[in-house]
Amino acid sequence: MTGRPGGRPLVPAYLSTGGVARPSRDRLERLSVLTGTGEAPPADLPAAQLALLDELADGSLTVVEAAALLRLPVSAVRVLAAGLVDRNLVLARAPIPPAEGFDPDLLKRVADGLRALKHP
Amino acid sequence: MIELPDLVAGALTAGTLSALALGGGLMRSRRQQAQQRAEIAALRRQLDGTLHAFTAEVGHLAAQRMPATARQLDRPHITVPGPRQPHLTGTPLGGALEDVLAALRVELTAQRTRIDAAAQAGMRGATREIQAALYRLQDALRALQQRYDDPELAQTLFELDHENEQSLRRAQVAAVVCGAWVGLAREESHLVDAVTGGQARLAGYHRVRVHNHLKPGTALVSHAVEPVAIIVAELLDNALRHSAPDTDVTVNLEHVHHGVCVTIDDAGLGMTQDERARAQRLVAGSEPILLTDLGDPPRMGLAAIGQLTRQFDLSVDLSSPSPYGGVRAVLLVDSHLLSRIDPEERPPAAGAPRSTRRAEPATSSPAHAYGTEPDDAASGAVSRHDGPRDAGGLPQRRRRTRATADSEPAPRRPARRPEEAAAALGALQSGTAAARAVARDGVPERADEATSDTDQTDYEGGAAR
């Protein structure tokens, strides 16, 4: 799982999606969290989608994490995930927004106040 | 006085006698001369005739027989005409004329080989450069694919990558035909990756259906990876080219007694007996390849396969028709070219089809053995004589085994519900807090170490996977 163990990959990324790079839904972002729904996959599921589903069987993953595990570019995983979401095999959740930055002035004033309390 | 007349008479007699004799000799010689003259005239006529015939024969040799002999070297169906006068065969002249043709043939063959070798060397040099440049381009394209994920850009990059793969394939095949090395060292790889990699090099790769019936982890030794990928790509290219665009080309990967068999079936028109024989001769790789034999534009695919089968001890068979009506190509990879990769440690590429034998490890546990063994035994037996049965029903049946294997993880799924993940994280937090509280109270550092250990493993277990 360390990047490209085999040097130049034998199987190019486009093969995994059948040459498609435009996902069927565009709400998936790099940090969208993918969770398997646990439904049994149909028999005609493409190999790459099955591989993604297998990775999700052990727990939720973000799109980038899945891309790293499958050794595929994010664009390909997005297409695969979108296909699985369409088939109701995977749930996608929007990325958790980063917490709002604190006001440094406020923090400084609090720290000053605390220091003032400590050394009266 | 008496004596004189005697003398005269004697002289007269002698004179008469000699005159008679002379006259007779003269007559005789006259006759002889006339005879000789006639003979000479006859001989001259005969000589003229022979000379004329000889000239005509040489003219025939130059105008008809020599060009035909030269043409026959690259077009064996051409027949060289015999001498103009059939009675010459067997005579010294006929033999000498045949010697001329034989010498011509030897010299032309030598020339042809020399010129072809020079052409091959030139092409080898050029294709090697092109191949290296295309690999650099491939690296650049793949780096871009990793870096940018805008769908429109990614689509373009995918298309460019595919175009590049196709150009690379052509350059590589031309190089291989000209006797060059495959141009790329690979490490041990899954066999299904090599097959899928070969598939990806073709324009019509969407039409290829790969059914992988190999044990997971079946791999190729490093030096066989690229040759197998090239051979599969060329066989698939032939299959795709000679079948209708709305039909599939089926690839089956199966174990056979002494190796692995890659069977490629198309539903095209098939080949005539002559074409089949020619193709079989080319892929066997037993004859040296001349570029002039490959036609214009040169059909390099089969010749490249021939080169590779000879160098790498692989074997390709095109002699049997496919049950789908087209051609069946069978690539046999001998077991000394096979190895094993742990599929858990290094899984095959995501795009490579899964093995239909995923229930394999279960055979070791006796509880499942009854469920899985018969199917496995059957597939092993059938793969030996992969006849129409294989093409008919088996893939479906195997697919069913995969479906059951896939439905297996379902019972394990609820363990990873979000609520449970939250509970696990909560437990982790409270555990960490408790341990920190203990550490703060002055308990030895070992406890702290232990905590950070569990912390790490929990973290890996929870988030990474």
Please report which band the strand proportion of chain A falls in: under 5%, 5-15%, 15-25%, 25-35%, 35-45% or over 45%: 5-15%
Counted beta strands of chain A: 3
As residue ranges, the low-confidence spans of chain A are: 1-6
By CATH, the architecture of the largest domain in chain B is named 2-Layer Sandwich
What does this molecule look like?
The complex is a heterodimer of chains A (about 120) and B (about 475). Chain A has about 120 residues and is mainly alpha-helical. Helix content of chain A is about 40%, strand content about 10%. Chain A has helices spanning about 15, 45-55, 65-70, 75-85, 105-120; strands at about 35, 60, 90-95. A three-stranded antiparallel beta sheet of chain A has the order 2-1-3. In chain A, helix 2 (about 45-55) crosses helix 4 and helix 3 crosses helix 4 (about 75-85). Chain B is α+β, with helices and mostly antiparallel strands. Chain B has three domains: about 5-85; about 90-185; about 190-360, 2-Layer Sandwich (Heat Shock Protein 90), CATH 3.30.565.10. Chain B contains twelve helices and eight strands. Chain B has helices at about 5-70, 90-145, 150-175, 190-200, 220-240, 275-285, 300-310, 365-385, 390, 395-405, 420-440, 445-465; strands spanning about 190, 210, 220, 250-255, 260-265, 315, 330-335, 340. Chain B has a five-stranded mixed beta sheet with strand order 2-4-5-7-6. In chain B, strands 1-3-8 form a three-stranded antiparallel beta sheet. In chain B, helix 5 runs antiparallel to helix 7. The longest helix of chain B has about 70 residues, at about 5-70. Chain B is rod-shaped and about 190 Å long. At the A-B interface, helix 1, helix 2 and helix 4 of A face helix 2, helix 3, helix 4, helix 10 and helix 12 of B. Chain B: One of its GO terms (molecular function) is protein histidine kinase activity.
